[in-house]
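Fig. S4 source data, part A: sequence.
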Amino acid sequence: MAKVTGLGGIFYKVRDTAATQAWYQEKLGVGGEWGAMFPFAADSPDGFSLLSPFKAETDYFAPSELPFMINLRVDDLEAFLVELKDKGVEPVGTQNEDYGKFAWVIDPDGVKVELWQQLGPVPA
């Protein structure tokens, strides 16, 4: 049975992504290309969760109208999607990259949930 293995990240809209990222880096000491990166362990550079700001104008969260999106890591995306379909949940999109497979679903409250199965090192 496929399962969610953890929080990949929280993505949210802001007015100025550079200023937000600088604040997290300068004030809290956390940063990275996609926002505040929280490694799972010091010896696991490819395993992390994100707090990632997006431009306020982004349509990446569509069709949700909410200003945030949740990313969940899964161990087997294809099997997980079969299980979701059996439960009446259809993805609103899918995408494959060298570093992972993605699918998006909308929860009952209109929150877009990104499902991510990591396949290789995440690009720096």
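Fig. S4 source data, part B ends here. The CA atoms of residues 60 and 111 lie 12 Å apart.
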